[in-house]
Design a protein that fits this description.
The chain has three domains: 2-68, Multidrug-efflux Transporter Regulator, Chain: A, Domain 2 (Orthogonal Bundle); 73-108; 116-265, Multidrug-efflux Transporter 1 Regulator Bmrr, Chain A (Alpha-Beta Barrel), CATH 3.20.80. Helix content is 38%, strand content 24%. It contains seven helices and eleven strands. The longest helix is centred in the middle third of the chain and has 33 residues, at 73-105.
Length: 267
């Protein structure tokens, strides 16, 4: 048997750690005498190393306790592996973002990736549909379902040769869930309306256009550039901002190839 000091030297572990593990009932000494001195056996060395290895890989004490109490270690290990993989993916994203800021601190700026220009939004007839989708991931199904319903009720209706469509958002704040939106598609003539689909004419108006190439999650950068450019160049926003999806998951496999146009009506 080894007293706590000698055992700590053999285990390369501090006495403070051994006492802490004893207090929380994670790893207790084999024997405690009448004076309160802790004694450990040779077998305790292997058990402690097992605990230390799991702690060194970040496993929570609660999970280690479950293993020591006889729960299926395979299940616990697999669950923790999934947590590590999830954390790894998140850290990769964070690393990429930090690298971006390192480049910015060297004199770069994400604003340099964008260019703004004044355009005229077309005067045209559009069919449109207002609705609520569970999240932004459901935009494409919403658009496709809208087109199918229009085609069903208007089999001869044609889109404009110079295709134009857009989405505007209904809420005054950003929504991650239950997103309120309106999708519109320019067409040659008015058509038959239904409960979901309506037609209207939109007027020609001045707007600032900015193209964003890349994932939708980075659209905030494009918005920051656009609003800042509008302010610096003496414009004021004069209507709801439109998002026009030029390239997306329907024709591009990689998010980095997505192309979205932000159109901000101005005066």
């Amino acid at each position: 048997m080894f007293r706590i000091g000698e055992f700590s030297r053999l285990a390369k572990t501090t006495i403070k750690t051994l006492r802490f593990y004893d207090e929380i009932d994670l790893f207790k000494p084999t024997f405690v005498d009448d004076n309160g001195y802790r004694y450990y056996s040779i077998d305790d060395l292997c058990k402690l190393q097992f605990i230390l290895d799991l702690r060194n890989c970040g496993m929570p004490i609660d999970d280690i306790e479950r293993i020591l109490k006889g729960e299926n270690p395979q299940s616990i290990f697999l669950n923790y592996k999934q947590e590590l993989e999830k954390s790894l993916n998140e850290n990769k994203k964070n690393l990429s973002l930090i690298n971006t800021f390192i480049n910015i601190s060297k004199g770069g700026n994400f604003m340099n990736n964008y260019q703004a220009k004044e355009i005229m939004l077309p005067e045209c007839i559009v069919y449109y549909r207002k609705g609520v989708i569970p999240s932004m991931a459901y935009i494409t199904p919403f658009v496709l379902e809208t087109g199918e319903e229009v085609k069903k009720n208007n089999p001869t209706l044609k889109c404009l040769k110079e295709d134009y469509n857009y989405i505007v958002y209904g809420a005054d704040e950003y929504q991650e869930k239950d997103v309120e939106l309106e999708y519109a598609q320019a067409v040659e003539t008015y058509g038959k309306e239904s409960e979901n689909i309506k037609f209207k004419k939109i007027e020609k108006e001045k707007a600032i256009s900015v193209l964003h190439k890349g994932a939708y999650k980075d659209l905030g950068k494009a918005y920051a550039y656009t609003i800042n450019w509008i302010k610096e160049n003496g414009y004021t926003i004069n209507g709801k901002i439109r998002e026009r999806y030029i390239n997306g998951c329907w024709n591009k496999k990689d998010e980095k190839d997505y192309l979205t146009e932000i159109q901000v009506p101005v005066k």
